[in-house]
């Protein structure tokens, strides 16, 4: 997993899973704490995430809300969009451009 960017926009790539969760959490929390306004997470380079990775994103979402900020997901890959819909988190998280639920392929 790699994360690059600043307190306004971060690009997350690789795998966001149990092995990378602690490092990702540290970077995301620092970005939330050090900035103002929306924090955009560009996930277009993300290969996969597991439940732990999703938990990291939800934790950053909650932290951002407590700091008066908003976490915005950008470039969410289709397979991860399906997971957000299945867990109904697409209703909670801010997703740039939204998720066209009807356009997602069925699995």
UniProtKB/TrEMBL annotation:
Protein name: Anti-sigma factor antagonist
NCBIfam families from the UniProt entry: ant_ant_sig (TIGR00377)
GO molecular function terms listed in the Swiss-Prot or TrEMBL record: anti-sigma factor antagonist activity
InterPro entries noted in UniProt: Anti-sigma_ant, MlaB-like_STAS, STAS_dom, STAS_dom_sf
Superkingdom as given in the UniProt entry: Bacteria
Family: Belongs to the anti-sigma-factor antagonist family.
Pfam families per UniProt: STAS_2 (PF13466)
All residue ranges annotated as the STAS domain in the record: 1-107
